[in-house]
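Appendix B. Raw example, untouched.
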Amino acid sequence: MTKKTLWCYAYATVGTAIMLFSSCAKKDEIKTPVLTTAEVTGIKPTAAVSGGSIIDDGGTTVTARGVCWSTSQNPTIANSKTEDGSGVGSFTSNISALEPETTYYVRAYAENEVGTAYGEQQIFTTSPPPSWAITNFTQDNGLIGDIVQSIVVDNSNNIWVGTSLGLSKFDGLSWTSYAEADGIPLEGIQALSFDPDGNLWIGTWEKGIFKLDGQAWTNYTEDDGLYSNRVYTIYADNKSNIWIGTSKNHITVFDGTGFDSFAVNPQTNPDGAIMGHIHAICADHNDNIWVGSCYTGLSMYNNNIWTDYVNNLSSFINAIYCSSEGDVWIGHSPLGAFRYSKGSWHNYPESEAKIQFVYAVGEDANGNIWIGGRDGVSVFHENTWEFINSEDGLINPVINTLAGDNEGNIWVGGPNGLSKIVKLEN
């Protein structure tokens, strides 16, 4: 072997050693990822939401990430897990197939070529199983229109639904719909009410009011004495007087023979026009008439005397309901619900009732009070509130109207259709 050959061999050997040393050094620099576990939110009886954030990939690509969970502490990927992509950054994990009322432990995980790392442990307990079963109805099921504005229940437990496209009736098995061919308009039906004689009264957006007496329809408009053909609410009292809330803060009362119209707490624009509309009317057990306006708030009529701004409530009274116990419930925006009981007022704001903008108030056959609004519905029972929304199965994120049937169920309507809520027995 020549001297030159020995030199080349030695050079190659040193080079190889350097490369191997460098490779080992790089290998030693690669670590498992560094990550955190997100707080658990959206907790349901069988599901929850968590996730995590990969802060450092450890020097090589994160090939898998997600969360793992178990009923025992410090879960690993050998337990239940999600798979939520790869790489660094934040991710969201949907945890499913859980058991109600069970405590779980969850950790985020991340894998690279070195191994698997975990974030800190979070603990959560799933909520109780559902108290209610929900069935939804739309045009696909036989409802004449999906935009539901009013619901009322007759003595035979038929559910009458006023929509933007007409009127529908549900007898528990099938739907019957009424529209222009039946003598009522296709324009929006805003309000429904039954009088003590069993007649159905219908308030419409531009065609006045209609009365269904058996199978005959009668239409009353401005030509007959109605203040306005645009009707926002309609209420039949126990004397069969029909109270009709219309535009410009006017009420028209129909006593069966004629119409009488008047403004409630009229306030005017600079041009002299009366502002506001009457959105709610109800009579309490003492025959006081309570009236809600979208502009001048709450008024009350007693013995030919009007009291305005009752409880200092002004603007946006959307609903009034007089309960079987004699309480008066008010739906307000944006102050939530109000209850007048035994001479005292109590406010249930969003922090208690979970709804800030209350558009509907009603009662089920068991005496529970329901409110509906922008975010869902809440039921008031034994001085506590239970909240139900679209995540629980309601077809509507916004509730326009609600009514209880004769069997203890509640029916709620909004822009996407109708939901029937049935109480589940333990």
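End of appendix B.
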